[in-house]
Queue: 3 jobs
Job 1
Amino acid sequence: MIGIILASHGPMAEGLLHTSEWFFQDQKQLEALCLTPDTSPEMFTERLGEAISRVDSGDGVLVLCDLLYGSPCSCTANLLSGNVEMITGMNLGILLELLGSRENGTPDIAALVGTGRDGIVNFKELLAGQTEDSQEEDFF
């Protein structure tokens, strides 16, 4: 089973981990790393490397980072290899899809990215595209 690391500026990664437990209890090979103002990039990279070692059972590791080109992303980029991959712009939709599918083999990275993108919508515009009858039925 692929290991998962959530990496963010501040406590976002821990929040996503705790929220995911509402849907998937007792997840193994899952860790959150939160960059704080007093953590140097070198220290964060070292902590990432240690976390990768802990969650990798031989099937690789997927690191979800909060922000493209942010420090967690840049630090993870230093550790990318054949068994370590990264998706930036992490959100709860991506994490839940990953947790639900990772026991079935290697996750489809492109599909996970699509899940994240598909979950970002202007809900008012989405509702405007529905008929009045279907709005109440489909969303409420």
Job 2
Amino acid sequence: MKFKTKRQLSFELLRAVQRIKPDDPLKIVFDFIDWSFIPPLVEKFYSSQGNEAYNPVSIFKCFLLPYFGEARSMNDVAEKLKFDTRLQFLCGFYDGNTPSAGTFSNHKSKWKDDTFYKIMRTLIAQLVAIGVISGKNIALDSSHIFAYSNPKKQSDPDAQWGCKHENYYFFGYKIHLVVDTETQLPIDAIVTPGNKADSPYAKPLIKGVKELVSPETASMDAAYDSYDNYQTCVNTSIIPIIDLNKRGKKPKSGNSDLFSVLKVPTVGSDLIQIGSNFFCPATNFKLAKDGKESKRNNRQKILCKHKNCPLSSKCKPLKGHGRTFYVYPTCDIRQYAGILRDSEEWNLFYNLRTSVERSFSELKGQHLLERPKVRGIVSTSIHAFLSIIALLLKRVKDFLLQGRLKTCLPSGRWE
């Protein structure tokens, strides 16, 4: 496929180039980043017949303009490119022939969210290569994105009702994010409908992170408290710093005085272990072992077989025995997986989790994440990826202006 190549600049465009300041934010990042990976990535979407296509690097730079505050929308981008010679040059339209709004829409439809995700990941890899992102410690969390839709009419078929907490519901999507705690920059992201839980997406996010960096710790809140997430971290040589999900340990109103005084165990980690024996912390009754489950990391089944237990009505006994608990043969990785829970060191790493919250705040406040003007999960994902890319590039610009980057990438302009 043939793309439009650079031609001799017109006199008007040459004058515009001379007026561009050296500290122009667009010029700094567009010149610094190596964009040469984009044409091979998108070449499959173009036909080998017909006229020359627009330079895909130029098209992608145009997609970033609203996120840099240069335009309100892609329609506005198309209008400004007709007359703004500065934007024409910086985006690479050297002959003055600029795309229409329909051209941008067609490119989004052809490239889809998968292409924008690959572009985002490649740019993150470049920042890892030059030392902007270390990924030594990471943090995971999710945040909501309101759908560009009336919840009553539900004009966005992919959006779903989600719940942040007991009194806060939203109609839209979730973005699941993992960030480098030192720079608060994203390393990977997944967009889902708003009704999806957080915990299942820790595993693919950690897998994506391991392809780029080698983190030592991963901080997460109680929404990610599951054995699968602990095991995923341990299997990839990451220390999990995950808050415990209380799982209903607090007594509900209306319960008997006995329940409010005695602690009813809820999970295996709550049990008292003396040697190889386990005891109920509420009654001190010895519990019975009931074999191991080889398909689930040899976890040990522990049963309560005391029929006359004073808490039997609260433990919801089954026929023949009481509650079943699960523990691991050596240690409970929810309590200890490299750093002792609630120790000073553990709390220090857990406090790093706030970095992902600050990243969300920056994405929503300065990079339009909270204000999508598109419908559907594909378009919303593209919007989220472009917002993240803008954050990454702006941070590179700041580093360059501060002289904090000594290593330079090759020129990004693709001829």
Job 3
Amino acid sequence: MKPVNIEQLVIGDGTPKICVSIMAKEIEEAVLQSKKLKASAAHLVEVRGDYLEPYAEPEYITQVISEVRRYSQRPVIYTFRTGNEGGEKSISKEQYTDLLCEVIRKRAMDLIDIELFTGDEEIKKLTELAHQNDVKVIMSNHNFEMTPDETDIVSRLKKMEAQGADIAKIAVMPQQQYDVNRLLNATSMAYQEMEIPVVTMSMGRLGAVSRIIGEVFGSSITFGAFGAASAPGQIEVKAVEEMLELVHRHCCQAG
């Protein structure tokens, strides 16, 4: 696997990195949360652009990202989660693509989230533009209803890799315990067969365990809650840090 390096942070090697989402509506709120995050265990900060008001003004978005980076002193992921994948706003494919293009050109973020099912042509355009502007791509897919079978999960992750993603991410909802096992098995398969880091999670209370044992199966980032959770089943950041270290020490180190 080829790890992703962002300054001193290495994604895809060792203990999964902890990401916290900022879901602020305005810049003042984002700055306040970022200042609090500075002393936390988080390695990355995600700015959820679908929560911002206004959400479609690149200059404003860039200002928010820059302030979050400045005060949190963490690499920043910019994510506009669409309504189709559990986000706050439903916008057209064209609006989504145009917005991400404009934000990428500002080069304020370190990584950008691009949804897998945006469309092949749109993904190609966005991914190429991101790489031209030294922005890493996390390609993602979210299913808040169910857990696909293992073959489907691995296929989606591999498609992300084929589409030029630097990191492939999938989040699914379990309906029974076996669904969590299915997600973890698929993670292990993808980890062994792919060249880029993978990020997987089973959501909700039933899937919470997947957020802390990802290293065993090959997941390289986990999301922790710092205040409001951005997805069902997120665990508070400090607890995530402690449990990740416990898993790393007892399950993933030789000897």
